[in-house]
Amino acid sequence: MSKQTMTAPARWVCVYCGSRDGQNPIYREAATALGTALGQAGYGLVYGGARVGLMGAVADAALASGAPVHGIIPRGLSERELAHDGLTRLDVVETMHQRKLGMIEAADGFIALPGGFGTLEELFEVLTWHQIGWHDKPVGLCDVDGFYGPLVRCMHHMRDQGFVSAANIARIGVAHEPQALVARLFEPMAASTDMS
């Protein structure tokens, strides 16, 4: 359902993140900063459609900065995750697979903020799809306060053990500040990564 006519932004950025705030207030601050940065860059936000946790924070900030926001949420989660009723567009779908596919198809690039199992599942799905040649969209990790440091080390280990190519690792953009990640998201990722 649409709340208003959706204007076409320069790009649509899909943000994966938690439906909780996490223990450190800096995570919510980063989500707010990311939503603001997307709006300031003229980008639209695609995300999981909830109004709680980091998901709600990034959506509210994007809306406040003038960005169109497209949420996609499964019907079974619309009550548990408290679907956001103030979005530019909210699609209620039947399955998680439909949610994830809709987000991937709508986006020109992807950013992962801190989150849990669902965030990692979504992140690794888009990384896997790139690896097998199903898309060539940029992917970035917003490494807030070192949150993704252990994951980055794990991916380096997978590369060193021969399970992931160096090229696929190198294309993942990593930045500690949301504004920096947004500013370079659509630059060549291999040239703009901290993941050496």
Structure description:
It comes from Salinisphaera japonica YTM-1. One of its GO terms (biological process) is cytokinin biosynthetic process. GO terms for molecular function: AMP nucleosidase activity. Its EC number is 3.2.2.n1. This is Cytokinin riboside 5'-monophosphate phosphoribohydrolase. There is one protein chain. The protein is of the alpha/beta class. The chain has a single domain, classed as Rossmann fold (3-Layer(aba) Sandwich), CATH 3.40.50. Helix content is 42%, strand content 16%. The chain is built from eight helices and seven strands, in the order E-H-E-H-E-H-E-H-E-H-E-H-H-E-H. It has a seven-stranded parallel β-sheet with strand order 4-3-2-1-5-6-7, with helices on both faces. Helix 1 packs parallel to helix 2 and helix 1 packs parallel to helix 8. It is globular and about 45 Å long. The N and C termini lie far apart (43 Å).
Q: How is this fold's topology laid out?
A:
Elements: E1 12-16, H1 25-40, E2 44-47, H2 53-64, E3 69-74, H3 75-78, E4 89-93, H4 96-106, E5 109-112, H5 117-131, E6 139-142, H6 149-160, H7 166-170, E7 172-175, H8 178-184
Parallel strand pairs: 1-2, 1-5, 2-3, 3-4, 5-6, 6-7
Helix pairs in contact: 1-2, 1-8
